[in-house]
Automatic annotation (TrEMBL), chain A:
GO MF term list: 3 iron, 4 sulfur cluster binding; electron transfer activity; iron ion binding
Keyword set, alphabetical order: 3Fe-4S, Electron transport, Iron, Iron-sulfur, Metal-binding, Transport
Protein name as it appears in the record: Ferredoxin
Transmembrane segments annotated in the record for this chain: none
PANTHER family: FERREDOXIN (PTHR36923)
Domain of life: Bacteria
InterPro entries for the chain: 3Fe4S_ferredoxin (IPR001080), Fe-S_cluster_ET (IPR051269)
Cofactor(s) demanded: [3Fe-4S] cluster
Stated role: Ferredoxins are iron-sulfur proteins that transfer electrons in a wide variety of metabolic reactions.
Length: 64, 390
């Protein structure tokens, strides 16, 4: 799995951090998401897909 | 549109009509205009995330729920489009980041415990709204923003006027002017004597020339209203819904598992969806969706309460089921305007739902359901009062 995050689209909702804390974090200064791991292991794949689903800004895309 | 008698937790039947075969249809508003009503969950998400729809109520075709205020409304960035919306919103996103909000849990727990102590020490029956549901989020948002809680009588009454659908436009305008003046004065204090609260952070940006004092005050108004009205209604209405579904209430009363409580919060958000006026937008370009064509300049109302009862996403949608996975709900909206304060709302609701029924296991309604005054006239649904005993 390959994860992409478009920080220009991100609205800092933090939904991705709730869904997959090992893969996403937020910048201290403005809460914009940061990608910690663009190739997460299989056991985190469902959480990452869920993060992409609930991201209100459609800023996360996943290539399987 | 009115809710069905005896079904105070369900969206109006008229709003739900045709959701399956026709997720977009025309409706007629109070002013004779005929915007689109979008009831499908998927279609709502698609449109709310589409930059070709605008949130600006000054654009022709915007489907206003009430006559416009004589002075024009100005509740900061929720009624703006990008890039102006993003510029302002990004100035207040940091304090709502997940880890910063989660760090507030002990403070929120202390507030909740203290209010329950006071309620239990006071007379029975008690009004849960006044004793608990309104003070919890008011105390939390005051702390976060740096607003003196001693002024709560003032800002709570102005807020409730602003969000009352049947208040006269002049009344709403006067209430909004009063709150603006109050926040402007407070901004003056923060400029003189900054603390470590959110409003002081905005004052710092005013000093740096990134923001005008007026913009900062309007953001303060928005955060203050949004920060207590919505959560207060979720607490009181959620408690009523649970009291009416004792098997579901038992799940919360009998668990100390945070994951169970967090899941229950999502389901109550989905089921109650208190922002029952819909999200309102106007199309900037022609948009083809679900076999329909929304023309540029046409209004669009996204009925998120109905979307959250879409059986294509939530099987048996009218059943309150705290154990279901409800995380795809649109109670906080979707797209760039999705609720800024949702991490804080979730935290408050997790602490409240995870504490109140365990500490007061005999909590029950002190009146009949038929006598509970529901906020049919508010842009945020809930109850005006909730007499409870234990």
């Amino acid at each position: 799995m390959k994860v992409n995050l478009d920080q220009d689209k991100c609205v800092a909702s933090g939904q991705c951090v709730v869904a997959a804390m090992e893969v996403f974090d937020q910048r201290d200064e403005d809460g914009i998401a940061v990608l910690l791991n663009d190739s997460p292991p299989a056991d985190q794949a469902d959480d990452v897909r869920h993060a992409a689903t609930v991201c209100p800004a459609l800023a996360i895309t996943v290539e399987e | 549109m009115a809710r069905a008698a005896g079904c105070p937790f369900d969206p109006p039947p008229e709003a739900r009509a045709g959701q399956q075969e026709d997720p977009l249809r025309r409706v007629r508003l109070w002013d004779g205009s005929t915007p689109w009503l979008v009831t499908g969950h998927a279609e709502q998400r698609t449109l709310l995330a589409d930059p070709r729809v605008s949130s600006d109520p000054d654009r022709p075709g915007y489907p206003s729920s009430v006559p416009r205020d004589p002075g024009g409304s100005s509740i900061s960035f929720i009624l703006m489009d990008d890039p102006e919306h993003a510029r302002l919103r990004r100035m207040v996103t940091a304090p709502f980041a997940i880890k910063r909000v989660r760090a507030l849990r002990p403070a929120v727990q202390k507030i909740v415990d203290g209010l329950i102590d006071d309620m239990l020490a006071g007379p029975k029956p008690a009004d849960l709204v006044e004793a608990f549901a309104l003070p919890v989020p008011s105390l939390v948002i005051c702390e976060l923003l740096g607003v003196p809680y001693t002024d709560h009588g003032f800002f709570q009454s102005k807020s409730s006027t602003i969000i009352k659908r049947d208040a006269a436009p002049e009344q709403r305008f006067a209430a909004s002017q009063a709150l603006s003046a109050y926040l402007d004065a407070l901004m003056g204090d923060k400029l003189d004597r900054p603390g470590d609260d959110l409003l002081s952070g905005l004052a710092e940006r005013v000093r740096a020339g990134e923001l005008t004092r007026g913009e900062a005050a309007q953001m303060g108004v928005l955060l203050l209203i949004a920060g207590h009205e919505t959560t207060a209604n979720m607490i009181a209405l959620g408690t009523l819904a649970l009291l009416e579904h004792p098997d579901q209430l038992a799940i919360l009363r009998e668990t100390d598992d945070r994951a169970v409580v967090a899941s229950a919060v999502e389901e109550l958000l989905r089921y109650l969806n208190i922002t029952h006026n819909g999200r309102r937008r106007v199309a900037l370009e022609d948009i083809a969706i679900a076999g329909r064509l929304i023309r540029a300049g046409e209004g669009v109302i996204l009925a998120n309460d109905v979307g959250n009862r879409d059986p294509r996403v939530f099987p048996e949608p009218d059943r309150l089921d705290l154990r279901r996975d409800a995380r795809r709900h649109v109670a906080f909206g979707f797209g760039v305007h999705q609720c800024l304060g949702q991490p804080l709302a979730r935290l408050e609701l997790e602490v409240v739902y995870g504490t109140l029924y365990r500490r007061v296991p005999t909590l029950r309604l002190a009146t009949e359901l038929e006598r509970v005054p529901f906020k049919h006239d508010g842009s945020v649904y809930g109850v005006y009062e909730l007499p409870v005993t234990w």
